[in-house]
Every structure is written in C-alpha cells, then in structure tokens.
Amino acid sequence: MDATALQLSLRLAAVTALLLVPLALLLVRALARRPFAARGLVDGLVALPLVLPPTVLGFYLLTVFGGQSTLGQWYAALTGRQLVFTFDGLLLASLIANIPFAVQPIQRAFAAIPREACEAAWCSGLTNWQTLWKIELPLAWPGILAALVLTFTHTLGEFGVVLMVGGNIATRRAPCRSPSTTACSRSTTGRRM
Fold first, then answer.
1. Cα dist. 68→18, 89, 157, 167, 183 in Å?
2. CATH code at 117?
3. DSSP assignment letter at 2
4. pTM summary value
C-alpha cells in the first residue's frame, strides 16, 4: 500500500470529521430550536447522500465543481486553480457525502434529551448558551462521538465520490484504494486501464 495515499486518506477523514461534526451540531441545534415549514425538506436534503449511489453523487459533484460550472469558475477565479482533482475538492465532496453520518446521530442524541431538563436549567437561571454547555452537550455526547466516528470511518471507506472528484491522476496521489478496487481498474491483460 502506498504510504502517501494512506496519509492522504487519513488526512481527508480527519479534516472531514473535525469540520463536519461542529457544523452538524450547529445545524441540529437550529433545527431543534426553531420549528419551520420546510423542516421535512431540510431533513430530506440531509439524507440525500444516503439514498444516492456514491458514483452518482460523485458525478453530480464533479459536474457542480467542474471548471465550466459557476462554482468551479468562482473557485478558479478566487484561488487560481481548479476545484476538481484537488484536496479542497475532495474535502468539499467528502463534507457533502458525509452530512447524514454527522447530522443524524447528533439529531437523535438531542432528541433524546428531555425537554424538562432544559426547562429546569432555564428556570435555574442558565442562559441558552450555558444550557447547551452544561446540560445538552454532556447528555448528547454519545451521539456526538458516534457522529465523529461514523464520519471518519465513512470517509475512509468512501470510494465513488472520491474517485469521481479526486480521480487517480498519475502526477498526483489518489486516496487509498482497496485491493479489490485496484483489481477492478486493471484490464484482463493485467495492465492498468
């Protein structure tokens, strides 16, 4: 196994988990505290990466991140390089593909917190911020830890989105590939396709 590919995979998984879990926590808190009409739509969008096949999601992201897209052109104008086939593109694709693995465990953990616990904290004089830190986060910790582990491990195991957005360019290092995916990319003569 290529050590550089393993290092890239571990880096991608760690950065994805460390960025996505706090963002998921903010999203879950916003959804939990403010009821609104489009909540079902937001829940559906969060779950969308679960129901789309990874290569299809990767193709859609490749289309959205590509040099001809608005996002791709904006990124190129801002940074001077393309979004696809870069670590930034891989990271953004990984963040999108892992949204349900970060949001859903945290959402379940916050849903399990009795409303009375928060109300008692407020009656005791705690602010919303203090209630979050002293009551809700300690009670939701197992869900937050599960989200961190699920996001990290799913990022390590994700292949379709990573292959589509990150590619496998000879001059760049691709994330780790399992022996089965390496074998699938070889022709019947044993040479790479």
1. 30, 15, 29, 18, 32
2. 1.10.3720.10
3. -
4. 0.82
